[in-house]
Amino acid sequence: MTPSATIKQFPxxxxxxxxxxxxxxxxxxxxxxxxxxxxxxxCRIYGINxxxxxxxxxxxxxxxMLALRSSRVMVVSRLNGDILYDGSAGDEG
Length: 93
Fold this sequence. Notes:
alpha+beta, four-stranded antiparallel sheet, 4 strands
């Protein structure tokens, strides 16, 4: 008898797929997107459930306004591609 092993499946939503999802939702023309596998230390978002693995995608704001303000972050589920959060990263200042 072989001992049972815990198998951790690879998340179905890859980093590239998360970037594609974020770009489609961002509705912006151009701009830089950055994707992180863990929440960056400067990211201060609250009220979302991150029990599941997520991608943290920093995206340009789509309003065309140039101002000193917080970054925009989208939290994308690695399990199904749902956007769990889209808004301020709370990193202004």
